[in-house]
């Protein structure tokens, strides 16, 4: 049965509020289900912020999730308020852009975020993906699943890169594909073709395109936004 994620989140928020009361500051959804791109078995990426998070809170939250319909699909992010405000800004940029609130206001809980945080989000994302693609090409096997993970990271990177270069934040793959050109567009097109087996040459060619794109972003640094 298809999951009605809006109803699911409504029920979750009710249970969270009953369990944690005023300690619950925010609950929201991110990921493919928030973007309308989910498969039947996709994770339910929940974001929860409490006034603080202790071990017993995590145990209570785990029990609560297990009691939810299809609770085995639940994953995501949970944090205390003080920890959230000390979180690296580049990571909070991505969190704030990709999260839809169902309870509370996430932006009101975050520290001030600026363009330098957005730049760091792109540069750190490019560096991590560059390293992962190089490592996969050197030491990985011919596994489409490995490419899928890299392309997931590439989508997040290209989405923020596009926002910095154009001022336009595009939430979904379909919309982003319509906006991108050249090497950036090709990477998203490559992602769409990862379902079947690949020959070694094509596998390495795709990894090479990822490495080349990330290298370009890293070399240009802040210039990538102009």
From TrEMBL:
Pfam families: NTP_transf_2. CDD domains: NT_KNTase_like (cd05403). It comes from the Bacteria. InterPro entries: NT_sf, Polymerase_NTP_transf_dom. Residues 15-55 form the Polymerase nucleotidyl transferase domain. GO terms for molecular function: nucleotidyltransferase activity. This is Nucleotidyltransferase-like protein. It comes from Harryflintia acetispora.
